[in-house]
Write a structure and sequence with these properties.
Elements lengths: L2 H21 L2 H6 L4 H22 L4 H20 L5 H13 L3 H16 L7 H23 L3 H22 L1 H6 L7 H6 L7 H6 L3 H23 L8 H20 L12 H13 L1
């Protein structure tokens, strides 16, 4: 690689690092104690996920969003062909080379965003919900765990459980926000089970039986957190510290949601900064 190209990639990475730091998310706290090469690889992955998520959540027409995501499908192909064009793709290309990441996982993330972009998801089946969680969360986890240093089989085992736990927690946390966008991720099997016949998101959230549905989703998330914890114990020592931070923070959010209850879903719940710092210290430095 020429000196000019190296400088360009360095500038790309610096911009990505600044973007992640400015976001001040739980992700940032979880990744800050990684060695620099792995941390910057994770920051590049985060920037990619934010990019495609912003496309899916934009106010553009579905056709425009699908076209933009198709552009990222082409850019992923270009990364694996050795000819990335966009600054973010150039940073991702280095990560792909360094950690032998699978193209299929990046394509799965884009496919998950396409599920949101094509039409507002409304009361999907349990099978469709699980596919969505796999694409938008577990696929990210499969890439992440490889960057952390786990083998592919170990990475997949942790990611498939933890990704679903995190996404189910997100769904419970964001019920009101998603409904405002016309989205409802609660599965129709559970709505039917508790006699909720409405499908308009606002009507579902106003139904008296909503807490029963949310409680079942919370149980599903807890089961996935426990499954992920068991899987992490089978991974090489130290490799799952960032994943443990993310798991601890989101498990706390889930407990706070349950304590708040499902009648005041407009009340935003998040993990306090001190908890994030405690988790980062506990799992990042011990």
């Amino acid at each position: 690689m020429s000196a000019t190209a190296q400088q360009a990639e360095g500038g790309d990475q610096a911009a990505i690092n600044a973007q992640v730091a400015a976001a001040k998310t739980s992700f940032y706290w979880a990744m800050r104690f990684l060695p620099k090469p792995r941390r910057e690889a994770m920051f590049a992955l985060y920037a990619f996920c934010r990019e495609v998520d912003d496309i899916a959540d934009s106010e553009d027409a579905p056709a425009i969003k699908i076209a933009a995501l198709a552009g990222w499908r082409r850019e992923i192909d270009a990364i694996y062909d050795g000819s990335p064009r966009l600054p973010l793709a150039r940073a991702l290309a280095e990560t792909v080379r360094a950690y032998n990441l699978r193209r299929a996982d990046f394509i799965a993330i884009i496919a998950g965003m396409e599920m949101d972009a094509q039409a507002d998801i409304n009361a999907p089946s349990l099978e469709e919900l699980d596919l969505y969680c796999d694409r938008v969360a577990s696929a990210v986890g499969r890439i992440s765990a490889k960057i952390f240093g786990a083998g592919q089989e170990q990475a997949d085992r942790v990611a498939n459980a933890l990704g679903r736990a995190l996404q189910l927690t997100n769904i419970l946390r964001d019920l009101a926000e998603d409904a405002a966008r016309g989205r409802l991720y609660l599965p129709h099997e559970l709505l039917d089970k508790y006699g909720i016949s409405e499908r308009a998101p606002s009507a579902v959230l106003a139904n008296r039986a909503l807490p029963l549905v949310c409680n079942e989703i919370a149980v599903m998330a807890h089961e996935r957190f426990h499954e992920a914890d068991r899987a992490m114990k089978l991974c090489p020592p130290g490799t799952m510290r960032p994943a443990r931070v993310m798991g601890a923070v989101y498990a706390d959010i889930l407990k706070r949601l349950e304590k708040r209850g499902w009648r005041r879903i407009d009340e935003r719940v998040s993990a306090p900064t001190l908890l994030k710092l405690w988790c980062a210290l506990r799992y990042g430095l011990l």
